[in-house]
Amino acid sequence: MPKSLSELEEHTQQWIGQIELLSVEEMVQYVDKREELIQQILNSDQIEINAEHFRDRIVNLLLNDHVILNKMQQLKEESLHNFNMAAMARKQKNRYEENFISDSIFFDQKK
Description:
mainly alpha, 4 helices, 0% strand, rod-shaped, Flagellar protein FliT
């Protein structure tokens, strides 16, 4: 557990340091790596033996969760905004496209 916990701490600090620069893909990679490390910690035999010993380190990691959640919420809102803008553009395009049959014939009725 100490190795996985240390790796999770390093990974989290590195990510938090550059949070504003991360793309969606980098965010997904971070979350996947974080999940992998957390599973290693949970599957560790030492988790119950040394839980009290690592309590402060784990609490510090949990304090960073709000930063992570805020970034995820920001990315979600940006994606939703972009999706809505694209949907609106499609709707306007369809509204103004001409719907006519090119084989039609028009008769001039001027006298």
